[in-house]
TrEMBL record:
Family per similarity comment: Belongs to the amino acid-polyamine-organocation (APC) superfamily. Amino acid transporter (AAT) (TC 2.A.3.1) family.
Cellular component terms (Gene Ontology): membrane
Transmembrane region(s): 29-48, 108-127, 139-160, 180-201, 222-240, 260-281, 317-333, 339-361, 382-405, 411-428
Compartments where located: Membrane
UniProt superkingdom: Bacteria
Keywords: Amino-acid transport, Membrane, Transmembrane, Transmembrane helix, Transport
Amino acid permease/ SLC12A domain residues: 3-435
Gene3D superfamilies: Amino acid/polyamine transporter I (1.20.1740.10)
Annotated InterPro entries: AA-permease/SLC12A_dom, Amino_acid_permease_CS
GO biological process entries: amino acid transport; transmembrane transport
Protein name per its UniProtKB record: GABA permease
The species this protein was found in: Amycolatopsis alba DSM 44262
Major localization listed first in the record, in broad terms: membrane
Topology term for the membrane: Multi-pass membrane protein
Length: 456
């Protein structure tokens, strides 16, 4: 569970996408990642409080539904599902492009579909199969980051062969914040996107032996490690390599390894990024299927997705996400600049909408638990309610910034269209009079034990 929490955060965005943030904010990108990390930690603490007090299959979908109403729950569940099925497509295409570097004669769509088939098969076997794969994927990523931090620190202190040491790169190319404080704050928006995935641990907890203990331990450990891995590694990048070097924008970690004189830099980084991509793809398939499975429990999704295999896996829900991934991969091949680009932009702010809903739900559920069952609050949000209110304000500010900044405006509005279509779907469902189930308030059964499921 600890590695699932860490693996959900450490994605290809850190290894590659961080270069874009560094180019837009300079060395002060460290501050951008720190602010985004603190916001994410606060959201995860709020989610952990609810998960430990009221474990439920579907996690924050259930909490949003109970605290904010059926419409909000429907929107949160489907937004999160949509977010991860698009992640499936994006990561499959990214993985295919990396593989093409080694097998250039094989078409991109063939490689992408091959990766989808491989990890779909893995998820179809059992939840344990997903966990095993994610354990090893996350282990590789964590080891890579730890080694990078170690050798980077040796370089800065002058203990690495040929190292000059020192921190002059932090200020010698226009200062620490050469593009201004506004650029630093604007860079927080994409940084939060890089942290998305830590919440997967609360979904996976429903299928663990001891969900309360697993979530509490994972959330406590992730706080320090998120700050250390993201902020620490980005600090090393801007301290060792000048922020305005073109190589830093393309692949910041590879650029640092070149300075350190590590042989076969390109191969090493491609292998690490491919591992990160496969990890994200694996998690996206798992998460989208479990969220769709949870949606069926309250009539928010067709009951056909409730069916389980003999091993307790919602295979139809997995195939639903995979099918969207297949279509998106084909779109990336046939219409990369129109359909696929639309899909990529249409989910950019969706995770932020979900995070804001988590924060709003926590405030309401905390008040209710304090009145009705305070003994369940074994892990609490810090400085409640003021820090919860501050977190809501910060998330609202990030979303507003995304709507106003030219670089993210199109993503915001297309994501708003996605939300609008989901709300239209809710109205259609409501007017057709579909039955609405009760929100589970006791620990939800894992798929293998779900009494509502119909065995295939």
């Amino acid at each position: 569970m600890n590695l699932i929490a860490l693996g959900g955060v450490i994605g290809a965005g850190l290894f590659v996408g961080s270069g874009v943030v560094i180019q837009s904010a300079g060395p002060a990108a460290v501050v951008s990642f720190l602010i985004a990390g603190l916001i994410t930690v606060l959201i995860m603490r709020m989610l952990a409080e609810m998960t430990i007090a009221k474990p439920a299959l579907g996690s924050f979908y259930v909490y949003a539904r109970e605290a904010l109403g059926n419409r909000a729950g429907f929107a949160v569940g489907w937004m999160y599902w949509y977010f991860f099925v698009i992640v499936v497509a994006v990561e499959a295409v990214a993985g295919g492009r990396i593989l093409q570097l080694w097998v250039p004669d094989v078409p991109l769509w063939v490689l992408s579909l091959g990766l989808l088939l491989l990890l779909t098969g893995t998820n179809m076997v059992s939840a344990r199969s997903y966990g095993e794969f994610e354990y090893w994927f996350s282990s590789i990523k964590v080891v890579a980051i730890v080694v990078f931090l170690a050798v980077g620190a040796l370089y800065l202190f002058g203990f690495w062969p040929g190292a000059h040491g020192g921190l002059t790169n932090l200020v010698s190319h226009g200062g620490f914040a050469p593009l201004g404080i506004g650029a630093v704050l604007a860079a927080v928006v994409p940084c939060i996107g890089f942290y998305t995935g830590a919440e997967i641990v609360t979904i996976a907890a429903a299928e663990s032996a001891e969900p309360k203990k697993a979530v509490a331990k994972a959330m406590r450990s992730i706080i320090l490690r998120v700050v250390l891995f993201y902020v620490g590694s980005v600090f090393l990048v801007v301290a060792i390599k000048s922020w305005d070097d073109p190589a830093t924008a393309v692949s910041p970690y590879a650029a640092v390894l070149e300075v350190l004189g590590i042989p076969a830099v390109a191969t090493i980084m491609n292998a690490i990024v491919l591992t990160a991509v496969l990890s994200c793809l694996n998690s996206a398939l798992y998460t989208s299927s479990r969220m769709l499975f949870a949606l069926t429990g309250n009539g928010d999704a067709p009951r056909t997705f409730t069916r389980l295999s003999r091993s307790g896996v919602p295979r139809r829900a997995i195939l639903a996400g995979t099918a969207v991934g297949y279509v998106s991969v084909i779109a990336a091949y046939t219409s990369p600049d129109l359909i696929f680009q639309f899909l990529v932009n249409s989910y950019g702010a969706v995770a932020l909408f979900v995070y804001l809903s988590i924060a709003l739900a926590q405030v309401r559920l905390r008040r209710r638990l304090e009145r009705e069952d305070p003994d369940k609050l074994t892990l609490k949000m810090w400085l409640f309610p003021w820090l919860s209110y501050a977190t809501i304000a910060l998330m609202a500010g990030v979303i507003l910034a995304m709507a106003l900044l030219p670089s993210t405006r199109s993503q915001f509005w297309l994501s708003a269209v996605t939300l609008a279509l989901i709300l239209v779907g809710f109205e259609i469902r409501r007017r057709r009079g579909r039955p609405v189930g009760e929100v589970p308030v006791e620990p939800a059964p894992v798929p293998d034990e779900a009494s509502a499921a119909v065995r295939e």
